[in-house]
Specification:
The structure is a homotetramer. The first copy, chain A, is an alpha+beta fold. Chain A has one domain: Chorismate synthase, AroC fold, CATH 3.60.150. In chain A, about 25% of the residues lie in helices and about 20% in strands. Chain A is built from seven helices and 18 strands. In chain A, the strands form six sheets. A five-stranded antiparallel beta sheet of chain A has the order 1-2-3-7-4, covered by helices on one side. A five-stranded antiparallel beta sheet of chain A has the order 9-8-10-16-11, covered by helices on one side. In chain A, strands 5-6 form a two-stranded antiparallel sheet. In chain A, a hairpin with a 2-residue loop joins strand 5 and strand 6. The radius of gyration of chain A is 21 Å and the shape is globular. Chains B and C meet through strand 2, strand 3, strand 4, strand 6 and strand 7 of B and strand 2, strand 3, strand 4, strand 6 and strand 7 of C. Strand 11 of chain A pairs antiparallel with strand 11 of chain B, so a sheet runs across the interface. Chains A, B, C, D: Belongs to the chorismate synthase family.
């Protein structure tokens, strides 16, 4: 029972701090015979990598992944895969008063209250940098899914920055790769660029909402009651740095619906059941329906801003702080590939669980 | 690794179907020496019990809990506590076409697609009745918490039914026990009564939002990265029947905030750090701050409604269905004690985890 | 993470004390569609049941199992199976000075030192009665194995009582069911009967060795490094009440062999690899070879004997104790069905794990 | 649930193959504030290191450990500690017919049958080299134990090589560090040196027995029923490469004892209960008594010998094999520090578990 692990059969343990020698993911339970190499994982890390455009932090790290174990002659062996990313941007710098002052909205203070140890160099385990390990593990999960359920496609995108939401009428899958926000609404991308530009100049930051969809997930994966597919997705997304809310399908809006409006009616399609709508987000009773699995999560604004804030020191004195240095006006942008990675890990895990308990899918309809 | 268990050290496994002989919770890892008897647990089951007013289902079950193990002479022994609730309302009845037809919005179809076994009697494990087991376990957790952190107070209440939200200006803790909705807003209670009355007559149902607050939680419990306090709360709440969204603190609304607005400033109080606000919901980096821990979740409307809906049969034929019998116009009401129970289990679990890894709290401020 | 659970995917949690209302096993992860009823489980409990002959304790309990959940219309549903055995022999009796005195060789004293709670009524969780729950779970596991690997046959038998070992030259599988010791050596059965008769009269007790063999286990189940098939078997057997040693294949005697003598040479048979011998006990590197899986364990003599022994009281005073009442001259006899049950649970668990990670067996030879 | 992990709260996941770039241990759940550096761990790796004398394999690896995470300014932070050992001896060599032939007694064949992937370079995860990771984790565990139970002392030693046992009359703790076998019997060390010299020359190998003792373990650690201290020790030792049997206290010999002989009588000492003997090996009902915790395990002879053996190829053809290259006449010698490491990990884990569930020890005697 590791507090730094997730997954049941596809088990990922992440380790490492933002300013130590390296960080990474120890992945156990991967099926053998999955074709994989470092480049196949690197593509996803490159997507998450900071410093790619002016809307993300300017820390420039190559984030180069190395496979240290579990792969032989280009295939997984079925034993633990160690994915390591060395930290190259460990420049010695003047941490100044960060060493003693807690940053409001940061985990500095709670880590101190829990452990009595203060790694002031950059957030330690609470740094967004930890998510690089997840993205690496997710890259492996994607390849393993192909072996079992080749039709699965996992795509994340932004639906909201600050108060600015996408227009669902503009939704276009092909736009997602065309803009720095991975948003399916080309108009929103343009508006957001202007909005964030101003925000960055003012030294402020803002929150965002990311949606991740898994298409082609076979019906029947998931499990009652505490390993429901939605339970595991909620945990996976909420565990991401700065996430404060998670929704499946209608999410919080389900509160406003009547039973009549909410029930997705069922029809018989050529390849099994089809539904009139997808309020459920592809999950009923914790088990996939075969529809798109739809998860959404909110990312809070980064607390590293250029405004002076009141705080206290380790010795309990009241003071003020201003966080100089690299800023991410909207840390939610970089959460897109992270959300995709978590979705991939959860889907693979439940494919394996299903195969373990049940083998071939048993309940045929029609 | 049980799919029907939750918790790390305080480990709860629920079992049983809505129409079998009994259901219950096997609770392992409870500290020894906790004073407990059946009446202390029964009070919480009585709160959740259906049939108490016209706004909840009229199924009348005594839901009487029996302690079968782990308690000797009124105290827990430290070994597994078996909490059993016998099903008394197992009247043989005519299930009619439910046997072959899937109810839209129900887990009928996904259970069939997963297991190839159909327990048509009432939802099996996906029934809301499963939550009685959680409430029983939560009753034990509340008593155990008193042994370790006696100031903890856990309270759930409704903040929204359909589109009707409470007015936070009317918030009054003392109102919560005074109305059938456990809502802190007396005016809302009155309005909701009228609204639900009409909804019930029309045979429709509606969703709701429940908020659960834990006051008095010591700073420092929780753990990075996949056993964060918020991660475990998200999983706990999302695992409840019919929940579609979970929020911590600002929740989804965090997307709309700027970093300047969102950062809770820190001051020094008499008993440690104090904050200017609680956007964080009492959790930073997965670890408690000492502020109120605030969780919210949305419950979808029950799909058992008196409107005819399109569906299919086990053999794949298209047909229609109308669910007769007992209806819950707002199943979210009964989710209040369930949410409280899950909060109690998670808080206790993390108190034990903290004590295990670290012993006495280490990081003193001031 | 329950301290009272074992298994990875086929997860068994036992609960209950020897003198409470009931005890049982909560079994999660069983495949759906396994044909099962109470009688199929009862047969194994009857085998373990005390009071069947003069060589086991005279406590007479019907040990009647009830299935409370997870089975519908004679088949497992894939959800938790609750197996309950009510304690009927809870006669109020005079515990006398047992209440305050610790019995040497019993867990009385360590339970007290750990929990500070003393259930003096009969050993609580440390009672051999807990093993009834395992036998019930094992009965279910046997039926589930048939669904996946129908050729598996699990048989336990005694190979030693006190200093009296069986003669391997007399080994006859058909004898095992013919004598009260489940031993394959008819001559040993006769000798042991006389030996135990005298021992019982003298109020003494003796240890024993039990061997459990699983035949027909497919090659390839198990997993490095801490879920090796032999690791899990060692844990499963060592967790049985009173067991002090566990061996796989040659076991402790492997220390005396040379590499030349120990290596099982490999040949090609009609259905795959065959071996010149089975020093390995059917397991190499934690993974099954397809040969018989052979486990052996030693059971210490029961400490409830009619000889006065020195001990102390709860308040630390030195005193003496003599255990009156029901005695088991060789508690090892009743461990035979328990060992079989644990073997069944472990084999099933690893069949499921293998199917989960790998699906169909991948490595074909020839 | 990782198949390559062990421990409940102090959770160790080992990863890496004998001939990949690196191997190591990801350690989660270590208490914060433990003083540690690479040298403190290195000392134990040096003890296990091959090539130190003529009785162990001549593979010369520096086995240099690097701490990649979880330690800041010389102290553990409470987050995962990554311990990496790079493989420097990866010389490209001619594997010859090993690529296709299975070595009798090796896990070659079962890994192939399980995974369908063959890492012929040196045993992969089944190599004895995996145990270096355990030794590193054990080094950390030893330091963490000091924080909680400073009187604990863990010592391993050999008691038997082939048929040659130590004379318990010669037992001298101070001898253990004085000979290449870590044996407390100086005379045995002399005899064994001659015996192994001949064995090595003849290209043969032999098994051994290792005993590990933990002194100063407080009474009350461990837990019923499947996380008993002895259960976890049995699993820990059986998971070590080439181990075929595990004993606690009297072990298999308990079968030969009468209840009268086996029961350790209890007296009252100055610091709590004392016992007339320690047949129990320091554990009753899965919980420590405060006496020495005594574990013993048998290591089979290595199968890499210079005698021709019959085997088959991957394609199922019968053939012969002879293993050239580096040989370990008694691989059991290097198992001594490995057994110590596993003991340290298990003891620490149970100290944390006890503190988690119970806090301060509750049951006082006297």
């Amino acid at each position: 029972m590791s507090m730094n692990s997730f997954g049941h059969l596809f088990r990922v343990t992440t380790w490492g701090e933002s300013h130590g020698p390296a960080l990474g993911a120890t992945v156990d339970g991967c099926p053998p015979g999955v074709t994989i190499d470092e480049a196949m994982i690197q593509q996803w890390l490159d997507k998450r990598k900071p410093g790619q455009n002016k809307f993300t932090t300017q820390r420039r790290e190559p984030d180069q992944v190395k496979i240290l174990s579990g792969v032989f002659e280009g295939q997984t062996t079925g034993t633990p895969v160690q994915l390591m990313i060395e930290n190259t941007d460990q420049r010695s710098k003047d941490y100044g008063d960060i060493i003693d002052k807690f940053r409001p909205g940061h985990a500095d203070i709670t880590y101190w209250q829990k452990y009595g140890i203060r790694d002031y160099r950059g957030g330690g385990r609470s740094s967004a940098r930890e998510t690089a390990s997840r993205v690496a593990a997710g890259g492996l999960a994607r390849e393993a899914i192909k072996q079992i359920a080749p039709n699965v496609q996992i795509t994340g995108y932004m639906t909201q920055i600050g108060r600015h939401k996408i227009d669902r009428g503009n939704f276009d899958w092909s736009q997602i790769e065309q803009n720095p926000f991975w948003t399916p609404d080309a108009q929103a991308a343009e508006d957001w660029a202007n909005y964030l530009d101003e925000l960055r100049k003012s030294g402020n930051s803002v929150g965002a909402i990311v949606e991740v969809v898994a298409r082609g997930v076979p019906a029947g994966i998931g499990a009652p009651v505490y390993a429901k597919l939605d339970t595991d997705l909620a945990a996976a997304m909420m565990s991401i740095n700065a996430v404060k809310g998670v929704e499946i399908g209608e999410g919080m809006a389900a509160a406003e619906l009547t039973g009549e409006a909410n029930a997705d009616e069922i029809f018989m399609g050529q390849n099994g059941p089809q539904y009139s709508s997808n309020h459920a987000g592809g999950i009923l009773g914790g088990i996939s329906t075969g529809q798109d699995v739809v998860v959404r999560f909110a990312v809070k604004p980064t607390s590293s801003i250029l405004t002076t804030r009141k705080t206290i020191t380790k010795s309990g004195e009241e003071t003020e702080i201003i966080t100089k240095g690299r800023h991410d006006p909207c840390v939610g942008i970089r959460a897109v590939p992270v959300g995709e990675a978590m979705m991939a890990c959860v889907i693979l895990d439940h494919l394996l669980l299903h195969r373990g308990q049940i083998g071939e899918n048993r309940g045929r309809i029609g």
